[in-house]
Amino acid sequence: MNKKTLVIGASLKxxxxxxxxxxxxxxxxxxxxxxxxREGNVAGITIDTNLMPYKDIDTVTLYLNxxxxxxxxxxxxxxxxxxxxxxxxxxxxxxxxxxxxxxIYFEEACTLVLLSTNQY
Length: 120
Description:
By secondary structure, this protein is α/β, with parallel strands linked by helices. Helix content is about 30%, strand content about 25%.
């Protein structure tokens, strides 16, 4: 099943996990949109630097440390995603409590592992 995914913290550097995730998600035929600090293109996906009003987001996968996530709380909640994935190093109890209050499912997991084990 195709799950439209927003990658936040997208990087143009091929060695970064966010970059690998974009490549892997597209290879699994998921629709991908991405936000990062620098505009560019990864696997045919444009990395936006502005908070875009994306529609029909199933999953938001985070590649930002908890301090940098604060600026995105309202934006992410406003997208009404079905779930948020907190990749290793992004765990954030403060944000997770807000998501609970909004009824948005989240999990502490690795997008790459979920994909490779058919649990995405």
